[in-house]
Design a protein that fits this description.
The complex is a heterodimer.
Chain A lengths: L3 H21 L2 H17 L10 H27 L18 H15 L3 H12 L4 H8 L3 H21 L13
Helix pairs in contact in A: 1-2, 1-3, 2-3, 3-6, 5-7, 6-7
Chain B lengths: L4 H8 L5 H11 L3 H12 L4 H6 L8 H12 L27 H7 L21 H11 L3 H4 L6 H15 L4 E3 L7 E10 L2 E9 L6 E7 L5 E8 L2 E8 L2 E7 L3 H12 L5 E4 L1
Antiparallel strand pairs in B: 1-8, 2-3, 3-4, 4-7, 5-6, 6-7
Helix pairs in contact in B: 1-3
The chains are: A mainly alpha, B alpha+beta.
């Protein structure tokens, strides 16, 4: 296959799936989102410039579809559930590994999940997916300064949550600074 | 230097130059509020990636990979380098009035053959992989996909000319206004190295209607109709061309539309 998009898209599907799951927290919505994203990417393929990051371009399409087409449907659906639904919890059920470390990791996810969506998605892109500030700004179609301020506010909120909930029995294994 | 949350975050993450760091530390010495923010930022240096990687996310459904594989087979092909090759005589959609010159000899025998519905002796359009692929592809179209200003005339003529040059069959875009459908867009796609033409129409509301054409090397086949994800899928073959109509119209209206297209009952707005 000569076309880079056709060639690389299948390999990037797991990354798209993971990002879609982290945006939607719902497998059915994530499947819809990834499929719409791929369809849109194939239709807009002429807009992608070979040599630029394909994953960032796909994430941008996926995020745009989430914001503009699917998020409101999910919210309406959840509203109809009268609070009985809620997002799925994807804690690892295997209970393997160090219990303290497992609890810490769980709390980290919960702290990020509790953030306002605009901050949460910046955290996912920068801290989880490893995107640069510039790449995150491109994906979200916002200025890089906005990425950095959302990231800072998100980090302060997460930090305050951890300070407010003493984790005496948890050894905070911080990422290197 | 204005010290805001972003600067403090960069300070905590050691992204600042030494002189900037010194400036901030001088300010922090006299500002308890900023010191509290720094304390929170320090507490927020956490193993985010490891935390999210430890989640047991549901595996990606196999259906996604299968769907994408079928779409990449339908992906738009690269722009052609030629235009205006000799064409067959004026052809109207499904009318059977004109057969592309290169295909005429092969299909002349089957020109007027119409099979009864459900005939099992021939590869019927509705059961062919390309019909399924295009129907699945189309089912994901939403109104917003195509609800935009129509393509300009030059581009439309270019796509029609390209398809005609490749298939040696001149094609027109039917005017479906009398059926309540407005032409919005035409695209040259590809299926298994064959050119595939997709015309999109919009009704006053609801999902887009698509009419797709693919050259085939088979005999004619009568109209077949099925339903997929709430969409009517109507297909037929005529004069070396396979047609698929995918629409949200009620079944009887979809069938009537296909009948009239097959009979050449709509005027052309572009081409041929």
């Amino acid at each position: 296959v000569n076309d880079p998009l056709q060639r690389e898209l299948p390999d990037l599907l797991p990354r798209l799936w993971r990002f879609a799951m982290r945006l939607t927290r719902d497998p059915a919505d994530a499947q819809d989102l990834v499929q719409r994203c791929c369809l849109r990417a194939l239709e807009k393929r002429a807009q992608w410039q070979p040599g630029t990051a394909l994953l960032s371009w796909l994430f941008k399409i996926l995020h745009s579809i989430w914001i503009n087409e699917l998020r409101s449907l999910q919210r309406r659906r959840e509203g109809n559930l009268n609070g009985e639904g809620g997002m799925d919890d994807f804690a690892d059920p295997s209970q393997s590994g160090d219990p303290e470390q497992r609890l810490l990791l769980r709390q980290v996810v919960q702290a990020v999940e509790a953030l306002p969506e605009a901050q949460r998605v910046v955290m996912v892109l920068v801290e989880v997916e490893g995107f640069s500030y510039r790449e995150a700004a491109d994906v979200l179609d916002i200025p890089i300064g906005t990425v950095m301020s959302r990231l800072a506010r998100a980090r302060i909120s997460v930090g305050q949550r951890f300070l407010a909930e003493p984790t005496d029995n948890i050894s905070l294994k911080q990422s290197p600074s | 230097m204005k010290i805001d949350e972003s600067v403090l975050r960069a300070y905590v993450d050691a992204e600042l130059a030494p002189e900037q760091r010194d400036q901030i530390e001088a300010v922090l010495a006299h500002n308890a509020e900023l010191r509290a923010q720094v304390q929170a930022l320090r507490a927020s240096r956490l193993p985010y990636r490891a935390a999210f990687d430890a989640e047991a996310l549901p595996p990606m459904p196999m259906a996604i990979a299968a769907q994408v594989a079928s779409w990449t087979a339908l992906a738009p092909s690269a722009p052609p380098h030629r235009f205006g090759a000799p064409l067959g005589r004026r052809r109207w959609l499904g009318l059977g009035a004109g057969v592309g010159m290169g295909l005429a000899a092969s299909f002349a025998a089957g020109l007027f053959l119409r099979l009864p519905q459900g005939h099992g002796g021939m590869d019927m359009p509705s059961s062919s992989p390309w019909v399924s692929a295009i129907a699945n592809y189309q089912a994901l179209y939403v109104r917003a996909t195509v609800d935009q200003p129509p393509d300009d005339s030059a581009r439309i003529q270019w796509v029609l000319g390209d398809f005609a040059a490749t298939t040696r069959t001149a094609i027109a875009i039917p005017d479906l206004q009398s059926a309540g459908l407005t032409f919005k867009r035409i695209q040259r796609l590809g299926y298994e190295d064959k050119p595939l033409l997709q015309m999109i129409f919009l009704a006053a509301q609801g999902k887009p209607t698509a009419l797709c054409l693919l050259p085939v090397e088979r005999q004619d086949a009568a109209i077949q109709q099925s339903e997929l994800q709430g969409m009517q899928v109507v297909s037929w073959q005529r004069s070396g061309m396979s047609y698929v109509l995918v629409t949200e119209l009620p079944a009887h209206q979809a069938k009537a539309l296909a009948d009239k297209l097959l009979a050449g009952g709509y005027p052309a707005i572009y081409g041929a």
